[in-house]
Amino acid sequence: MVNSTELIGPEFKYIISEFQVSTFAGSTNGFADGTGIDAQFDSPRGITIDNAGNFYIADTENHKIRKINPNGTVSTIAGSIEGDADGTGTNAQFNAPEGIAIDSQGNLYIADRDNNKIRKITPNGAVTTLAGNTAGYADGTGADAQFYGPTGITVDNQDNLYVADNRNNKIRKVTQNGMVSTVAGSNPGDTDGTGTNAQFYGPQEITADSQGNLYIADSGNHKIRKINSSGEVTTIAGSIEGNADGTGIDAQFYIPIGITLDSQGNLYIADSYNHRIRKITPSGLVSTIAGSSPGYTDGIGASAQFYFPLKIIIDNQDNLYVSDRNNNKIRKITPE
């Protein structure tokens, strides 16, 4: 469909969707609660959504966790100044929180990047440390475990956590009691394989499907990787640094960071340094749905502009929401 026209050929029938980009919340760089463009963020990154349609944002350089209700009203639920403190609401402290995910009970989990910890926020705002201590690499439970710059986090359908442990170049699993183990990855590199025989290079974000598969934005390798339920790592799209649509390894990304999955098995990628949002179908076909050169413009498809889009999430109506870092905004992408 081009301009709402269905295209039919002798050997095929296909529909090209258009995607409308708008601004959901945020304006200039700063810190302010408020509605829509009256609110301010400072380098927002992680984003997740609950069953009621509320969004939760890791407002990284403000060291806070923000909430956006379905009407676009932004409030602060936890965090204050840069630091490392458990507590309730603004009595808690984070240091560059980046990843954020929500479990079936409404608990939030934060990849608190520069504290090298995984933090938990209950629905009443109580912040605790689930796992992690000083920077390093160690499996174990609670404070015996170590991470090094965790940036991405997701929750599976059994409420297990999976973490993109960025500077350790590994994917880690965290159970509800804080037990940390390594799922895949070893030294930095680019190798498919099983478990620790595989290699990543600066994995940034992670998402899970209902079958127990994990999908990784392997940023430093400019690739999208998959880990199946047996721990086997494969490459589903991407090759060298670049900007090209295509199938599988014929496609190119430039430091892809955000990744999310819709109900049909399509992946959506915040291709950060290309300033674009990309789509990967279950067959591995990569296309560009929005974005062009860096900037700030609402619009349809390539007429819209982002400036380092970082993280991405999808709602139950297949609307996408993107943390547009250098524009300090949350953008909405609606299929037309």
TrEMBL record:
The keyword tRNA processing does not apply. NHL repeats lie at residues 38-71, 89-124, 142-177, 195-230, 250-283. Coiled coil: none annotated. Gene3D superfamilies: TolB, C-terminal domain. Residues 87-133 form the Teneurin NHL domain. Keywords: Repeat. The keyword Repeat applies. PANTHER family: NHL DOMAIN-CONTAINING PROTEIN, PTHR13833. This is Teneurin NHL domain-containing protein.
